[in-house]
Amino acid sequence: MQGIWTTERIRAAEDRLLAVTPDGELMRRAAFGLATHTAALLAGRTSGVSGRRAVLLVGSGNNGGDALWAGAFLRRRNVAVTAVLLKPERAHGAGLAALRRSGGRVVSAEDGPQWIDRADVVVDGIVGISARGPLRPDAAALVERASAPIVAVDLPSGVDPDTGAVDGPAVRAALTVTFGALKPVHALAPDACGEVVLVDIGLRPELGEPDLVRLDSPDVAAAWPVPGPGDDKYSQGVVGIAAGSATYPGAAVLAAGSAVRATSGLVRYAGHAADVVRSRWPEIVATGSVRDAGRVQAWAVGPGIGTGQEGRDVLRHVLGQGVPVCADADATTIIARSPEVLDARDPGTPLVLTPHAGEFSRLMGEAPGADRVAAARDAARRYDAVVLLKGHCTVVAAPDGRVAVNTPRGSWLATAGSGDVLTGLLGALLAAGLDPWLAAASAAHVHALAGSLAAGGVPTSASALVTAIPDALRALRS
Ligand SMILES: NC(=O)C1=CN([C@@H]2O[C@H](COP(=O)(O)OP(=O)(O)OC[C@H]3O[C@@H](n4cnc5c(N)ncnc54)[C@H](OP(=O)(O)O)[C@@H]3O)[C@@H](O)[C@H]2O)[C@@H](O)CC1
Ligand SMILES: Nc1ncnc2c1ncn2[C@@H]1O[C@H](COP(=O)(O)OP(=O)(O)O)[C@@H](O)[C@H]1O
Ligand SMILES: [K+]
């Protein structure tokens, strides 16, 4: 599990470490790592390091200091280094002196473009964890000019460090070299960060518990249910799927099929698409109504059930069964419009809500906004439920404050029905008895992995996603 810390916590930890570390030592550690990874990128992209040209974009803080020191280290490998100072009077003094001593060139922002045009790599030391708002116009003009790959120092400038939000011009890096710990931007703005490498500067002991986490494949593999010798189809947890309708059976087929592929326990289906589901998935026990579905250990409810009286009855019924419920799609809309359906819920039984941004707006009365982590946390508290906020990056918040972020591999999951597949996965994990927050984060992880395997670089479909679930689980377990 990777820990992620907000900039406030990072700053506090840095202050504690700075107090017991010789002056300038942390920055040199950071910069040495930055130089090493920048050289590796140069070697990979240009088949060499010596004689290559690096341009540093240097802002007024320590982020610029990191870039300047890294420039001095790159000089040792005979890289031609030019620093473009955005605010010459406020550039980091020691870093600037080190670069000058090493034979680096220093130019003003006006002279920057001619050097940027000939660069093999551009190092973005404009702003780091003290960033506020989008890039300012002088910095934006230089960044726009760059056609060489950009290495972001700590984080891509112009992107909010704590929310990953981009609200104007921002750096789009090929590589981000960060120091001490991952910050939210690295999980929430993958496209701006490019590849992310973490350089150890000895900060970990000062950090305490992370604010957010990101599950690694081994975490998900360890959590995913595996049947034992004593198991049978019931003991692994039976999931009930209440989805789809006679007119729209697709959601039922996708959610139920996804549950079939997620675990080896039994899947029940209840709804108007029973015939279609049965013909597509003969292993499913399908009935016409949740009332005669038989016993389950969790319900996944919502996709395609409609938001009318019948949908409300279905939702109220499953909420009253005393088992965990994953409420998706129409079920979230019903909850938003008729919150009294939640009265049917036994307060002790887990509920997982899986809204996309539109459904979230209905549930909360406002859009998630720039701070999607805070938004998901608020919703989790308000509904006393695990909230999985869908989007490019998926945020999973528990009412106790735990938050997991799933960083996608591309955007191929933006395809019709892909949410139904997630619901099936999640329902199966809840039935298997996983902690609901872990179930939601694990389902999102496998969903994204299956999406990238199904796509393989070209458009895919929700059906292909269901087919790819075993490949994703195999990849996890290997
Ligand atoms: N502390 C440590 O031990 C270590 C710290 N380390 C490094 O320090 C970095 C943090 O450095 P920092 O705190 O000096 O500020 P930093 O992020 O460089 O910002 C500088 C100034 O930029 C400005 N600015 C703000 N927004 C802007 C925008 N959108 N566009 C343009 N400019 C903008 C704003 O100044 P203003 O112009 O508003 O007065 C702000 O004060 C950290 O990310 C890591 O790289 C590492 O070396 C490891 C050890
Ligand atoms: N741009 C994107 N990049 C990555 N994943 C995405 C993107 N857009 C949507 N997704 C994912 O695809 C799924 C879509 O779910 P949903 O909106 O419920 O669609 P549907 O109702 O068609 O099933 C969610 O898991 C979401 O996180
Ligand atoms: K930066």
From TrEMBL:
Signal sequence, renumbered to the chain: none
Positions in coiled-coil regions: none
Binding note for cofactor: Binds 1 potassium ion per subunit.
One Pfam family hit: Carb_kinase
Keywords: ATP-binding, Isomerase, Lyase, Metal-binding, Multifunctional enzyme, NAD, NADP, Nucleotide-binding, Potassium
Gene that encodes it: nnrE
EC number in record: 4.2.1.136, 5.1.99.6
Catalysed reactions, as listed in the record: (6S)-NADHX + ADP = AMP + phosphate + NADH + H(+); (6R)-NADHX = (6S)-NADHX; (6R)-NADPHX = (6S)-NADPHX; (6S)-NADPHX + ADP = AMP + phosphate + NADPH + H(+)
Family: Belongs to the NnrE/AIBP family. Belongs to the NnrD/CARKD family.
UniProt superkingdom: Bacteria
Binding site for K(+): N63, D124, S157
Protein name, per record: Bifunctional NAD(P)H-hydrate repair enzyme
Residues binding AMP, per UniProt: K390, G391, H392, C393, T394, G419
Summary of subunit composition and partner proteins: Homotetramer.
Chain positions recorded as (6S)-NADPHX binding sites: 62-66, 128-134, 154, 251, 304, 356, 420
Gene3D superfamilies for the chain: 3.40.1190.20, YjeF N-terminal domain
Domain YjeF C-terminal, residue spans: 216-476
InterPro entries found in the cross-reference section: Carbohydrate_kinase_pred_CS, CARKD, Nnr, Ribokinase-like, YjeF_N_dom, YjeF_N_dom_sf
Domain YjeF N-terminal per the UniProt entry, residue ranges: 6-209
Cofactor: K(+); Mg(2+)
Physiological role: Catalyzes the dehydration of the S-form of NAD(P)HX at the expense of ADP, which is converted to AMP. Together with NAD(P)HX epimerase, which catalyzes the epimerization of the S- and R-forms, the enzyme allows the repair of both epimers of NAD(P)HX, a damaged form of NAD(P)H that is a result of enzymatic or heat-dependent hydration.
